Structures are given as C-alpha cells and as structure tokens.
Amino acid sequence: MTTDDSTDALLDGLVRSAFQIMSVLTRVGAEHDLSLTQLRVLGILRDRRPRMSDLAAFLGLDKSTLSGLIDRAERRGLLARAANPDDKRVVDVLITDAGRELTGRLYQEVQEALAPATGRLDAARRRQLAQLLEPVLSPPLPVAPRPPVRR
Fold it and tell me: What CA–CA distance (Å, rounded) separates 76 from 99?
C-alpha cells in the first residue's frame, strides 16, 4: 500500500499529538501514583460499567494482569467489582465516588496542562478538529493481546 503526502502528514500529526498527550497523561498520572493504564481505566469507567472480560479486551490485557490492576485500585477505594445485574456469573467493574472525584481532578489537570496547545485554536477550530478526529478514532482500533513472554 502506498501513501501520499497527506497520509504521511496525517500520520505524523497523529503520532506527534499522541506523544505530547501521553507525556501529559503520564506526568499527571504519576503525580497521583497512577500508571498510564490505570489512568485509562479510570477514564473508561467514568461513564460505563464494563464486564472484566470486556475491559481486558479493550485494554489489550490478559485477565490476570487486569485483575491485579483492579485489585490495586480497589485497595485505594477508586474502583469496585460487582455482579452483573443481568448475569450473576459475570463480574463488572465500576468506579467509586472517590474514583469519580479523582477522575474529575485528573481531567481538570490534563485540561490545564494541554491548554497551551488547545488554546492555539479558537472555539470553532477546536470543534472542527474534534469532528475531523471522530471518524479516525471511532470505533477504536482493535487491540490485540500481547504475545506471551518466552523464557
């Protein structure tokens, strides 16, 4: 597959923006003793209650890795596990009030950290950029689980 200059420019812009945003997210997360993956989990759980298996698949993690991550967040009072209301054999993950409060603070800190970049655009161009990114980002690309480590 060949690429044209516009595809190269788009890929370059997406990668550069991802690096810049991941740098901010990593720093803000570290200030609250959270990894980038833990930050992603909190962001996902802001407005949904996924099954453990669905969350693991979305993050590209195996169930045991996700279970350890959820255990640590539960000990901090940020997340909880509960039986799925439709199928008691299934375990859902949900955010607690403390997790929701922390997520609100994290969002504010990320917004402030990215303000120098997002502030370069007026409101109309920010809306336009969000609209242009939507078909690129939705639905999310499938995440393949990591291959097992060979020893």
Answer: 9
User: What span, in angstroms and rounded, lies between the C-alpha atoms of 76 and 85?
Assistant: 24
The continuous run of DSSP H or E covering 81 comes out as strand 79-83
Amino acid at 133: L
What was the pLDDT predicted at 69? 94
Whole-model pTM?
0.82
The token pair that represents 151 in the structure block: 């020893």
What distance in Å separates the CA atoms of residue 70 and residue 92, rounded to the nearest whole number?
Answer: 11
Cα-flanking dihedrals φ and ψ of residue 95, to 5°?
A: -85, 140
SS3 54: helix
| Tens digits of residue pLDDT in 88-120 | 889 999 999 999 999 999 999 999 999 999 999
Q: Cα separation of 100 and 25, whole Å?
A: 17
